Amino acid sequence: xxxxxxxxxxxxxxxxxxxxxxxxxxxxxxxxxxxxxxxxxxxxxxxxxxxxxxxxxxxxxxxxxxxxxxxxxxxxxxxxxxxxxxxxxxxxxxxxxxxxxxxxxxxxxxxxxxxxxxxxxxxxxxxxxxxxxxxxxxxxxxxxxxxxxxxxxxxxxxxxxxxxxxxxxxxxxxxxxxxxxxxxxxxxxxxxxxxxxxxxxxxxxxxxxxxxxxxxxxxxxxxxxxxxxxxxxxxxxxxxxxxxxxxxxxxxxxxxxxxxxxxxxxxxxxxxxxxxxxxxxxxxxxxxxxxxxxxxxxxxxxxx
Length: 304
Prior knowledge:
Blueprint: H1 2-30, E1 42-43, H2 47-50, E2 60-65, H3 66-69, H4 77-86, E3 100-102, E4 108-113, E5 120-124, E6 130-132, E7 136-140, E8 143-148, E9 152-155, E10 158-159, E11 161-165, H5 166-176, H6 184-191, E12 200-205, H7 207-212, E13 214-215, E14 218-219, E15 221-231, E16 236-245, E17 249-252, E18 263-268, E19 273-280, H8 283-288, E20 292-295
Parallel strand pairs: 1-10
Antiparallel strand pairs: 2-4, 2-12, 3-6, 4-5, 5-11, 7-8, 8-9, 9-11, 12-15, 13-14, 15-16, 16-19, 17-20, 18-19
């Protein structure tokens, strides 16, 4: 009986620690005022350009825009949806007050997942001072890495701040200094054509995207983007899909009987990129919405 109680107490403690960790991040997000600023050598503002600092070989990337989410009502279903995803990517070894203190709030985060225990994070800390529980400092290239146990490193001379698994942080520095290949080499030409701001986005390219989109035993996609946002004019939710197709595939139209959401618009580019906007006032319908993927079929009828 005592062992059962110990296991139950351990589960409760783990749950409470998770809540504390998540709560601390949102405390960072909501901060405002005249926090002390830090000096940076390199600065990016838009998440599309964050991929230009992301080393190649990433399995997928997730983008969270806290400034955008703050515009929504507290009980908005899209906010709940994004928050549930956020809880799965924030590692307590990094995002806890005992480790990381951000004085001016977090406005956005890009998470690059390389299938390591600790991902690579690009954290927009609004140019405020960042306090990291470092145990050592080391020079890497032209930057100073703040390092702590568990293989975690942070660089605050950039905006966004780069933090995560130390080998990945070092690879990101190599990208900035032109010594490593960037994810942006394969993705920025597509991301730059996806307009507007997003509350949340998921990005995948290369072999992971090829494995996820197949027709029979054939890969048909090498780039995938899914983004969610709110249309404040129409008071409705939007989901955007952008795919770069391999071969004769594209997004086609839908008639009213084929779709279960209000608005649908597609644009196909000559280089194989297709973008679809799906919109509805019901967020559940937007989550379930899918564009219509078509293929050119060429037939020959040769008679003599």
